[in-house]
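JOB MANIFEST
job_type = single_chain_structure
chain_count = 1
residues = 205
[input]
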Amino acid sequence: MDTRARILQAALDTFSEKGYAASVDDIARRAGVVKQTLYHHFGSKEGLFREAFTGMCTTLVVDAASSSGSVRLDLLRFVETFESRVLSEEGLAFHRVMMAELQRFPELAHTMHESWQVAQNRLVRLLQVGMERGELRAEPAEFAAEVLISLLMGVHRGRLMGKPLHESQLSPSQIVDVFMRAFAPDAKAAPLDSPIHPIPEKDLT
């Protein structure tokens, strides 16, 4: 690993642990360089923070570009990759720091959104292929992608708030199976633009 990459990794690790309050001295010490070397490469602490977290956004993009011929296998690969990157301890720490520092670095919100959109667009394409092959019920693929990601985030909501992994948490294959049952070709579902009918009051008692 070259000097620049070593500084970026040290910065990412230190910022993830301490937030933007992390000192340049801490980062330089962790990278095994003097402060002058850090400033030579990145100009300032702000410049280092921006570059470290912009790079992290890119690495968190989930690769779902190719189809294996089975939508279940494709979705399982997506979920496993999503959990290992976005929902890893490093990914969650990154997310918390980003949320805390968006007011100071508003442009990073755009970078994060773009990276997220790339991953979601790839998932949408996989779902479209699965629907075209008849493996999934024909629905707007963007909606189906939102459902899967919401299911994933819901399963990990405790960890997003800093709680430990629960032993009863659904596995990637269980998450995919829940999604597949919800979008099974023979599953009956009301169209998305159907009106929601209120439950008669007599049925609430």
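[summary]
The chain has two domains: 3-56, 61-185.
The first helix runs from residue 3 to 18.
exit_status = 0
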